[in-house]
Amino acid sequence: MATEAQEYMNGLRPGPLTREIPECMRDKYTIIQTVLDVLTFLMLAIGHVIQGIYKSIVGVPKKDLQGSIALVTGGGGGLGSLIALRLARLGCVIVLWDINERGQ
Ligand SMILES: NC(=O)c1ccc[n+]([C@@H]2O[C@H](COP(=O)([O-])OP(=O)(O)OC[C@H]3O[C@@H](n4cnc5c(N)ncnc54)[C@H](O)[C@@H]3O)[C@@H](O)[C@H]2O)c1
């Protein structure tokens, strides 16, 4: 009796369809499945590349942060304080969180 581990060791992916496919068809199924996987990967990759190019040319609509509340951890200095200043300029209510009470 073939277990899933044995099927996997023979080069077959364990999956819901593997057991339903006759033994004589399993090689073909594996090849077809691999081709489909590669095609799916290529289509998704090309889709993401096209999407990235489109967004870099057309741009992405920016979210309006006016009146939003922003909690900035480590906002007493460094990048946190810069982020807090940027968010404040965009109209956010800033809550600063830092272990350094004095800040910089
Ligand atoms: N500066 C860079 O180029 C850079 C690049 C990549 C990632 N980072 C990461 O971004 C973060 C901030 O970098 P930075 O350069 O602004 O560092 P920083 O040391 O200048 O500022 C960190 C701030 O966080 C505060 N802080 C530390 N522990 C805290 C805690 N437990 N709770 C609340 N506040 C705390 C500190 O008091 C300080 O004000 C770090 O995690 C750093 O590793 C920085």
TrEMBL record:
Record-linked PANTHER family: FI23927P1-RELATED, PKSB
One GO cellular component term noted in the UniProt record for this chain: lipid droplet
Keyword field: Membrane, Transmembrane, Transmembrane helix
Transmembrane parts of this sequence: 35-54, 74-97
SUPFAM superfamilies (UniProt xref): NAD(P)-binding Rossmann-fold domains
Gene source species: Euphydryas editha
InterPro entries for the chain: NAD(P)-bd_dom_sf
An annotated Gene Ontology molecular function: oxidoreductase activity, acting on the CH-OH group of donors, NAD or NADP as acceptor
Name of the protein this chain belongs to: Uncharacterized protein
